[in-house]
Design goal:
5% helix, 9 strands, single chain, Pectate Lyase C-like, three-stranded parallel β-sheet, four-stranded parallel β-sheet, little secondary structure, 361 residues
Amino acid sequence: MSTDQPASPASLLIEDQAQLLAAAASGQLLGCELRGVVANGIDLSGQDLRQARFVACELSEAVFDRARLSGARFEKCNLRGVSFRSSDLADSDLSEHAFANADFTGANLTLAHLGSSDLTQACFDDAQLVGVVLSAAWLSGLDLRSARVVCAKLEGADLRGARFHLADFSDANLQTTKLDASTSFDQCLFEGSDLSHLDLRKLNLHNSNFAKAKLVGCDLSDARGLQVGFAEADLSLARLVGFKGERADFSGATLSGADLGSGEFRDAEFGGCLAQRASFKQAKLDHARFEKADLSECSFRSASLVWAILDHAKLDKSVFMDANLSHASLHRASVGGCHMSRARLDDIRYNDPERERAEDF
């Protein structure tokens, strides 16, 4: 039998601090129930409190460091300033509490419930937040860069000013989360997640991966996304005006009707993307790659496409007025109805006969 869960939790009822101290001294806290206990500042470090239930207890500044609290339930308790350093809180219920100055450093919160809790002043350094429920929780300003955040449930959570590093939000529904320019997602994973219509303006998204994510109609204007990945993502009607996306990956992405005007996409990958009627006005696209992309009816007015590769791309009815296409490659590109008045076409490369023979071989 697993030692992580008690075989038959005790039913000891504890109603005051004296009883609590006595039970702790004799190791009888497993599965106990604490009701109305006032024990501010009590030290229960290392105690076995698995499956315990805390109801209307005053536990401010209490210490539960290294305690075993898996499956524990807290209801209407005062938990301000509580220390859970290196404790096991897996599958515990801490929802609807305020954790001002609480310390969860190194704690295991796998599958724990913290929904509707105020976590704005808590510390989660090196904590395990795998599958944790944070729905409607307040995390504004929280530094979670050293915490392991995987598959957290964040519906309705306030993430304004929160900072994440290497967090995994795969397949998460983030449509109702609250974000602002001070929210930071560095090297985070959003594969298959839904961020449709979210306001992501000015966010730090460096090296994050949104592969196959749904970002329909979201606003990424002025966001910073160096080497960000959007492979096969749906960015239909999204706004990426002023987006800083050098070396970003949009391969196979859907960008139909999106606005990428004035963005910085040098060395970016757009191969195979579907970007009909998208706008790249005044965008910096030097050395960008658009092989086999559908760019029909796009606007590249005043854009810089120096050394860009548009081989086999569909450019029908696209507008390149005042654009700089110097040294660009348009090998076997479809250019019917393109508007290129006043465009710079110095040393532009069209169909290469040798490549054609090799491709047709």
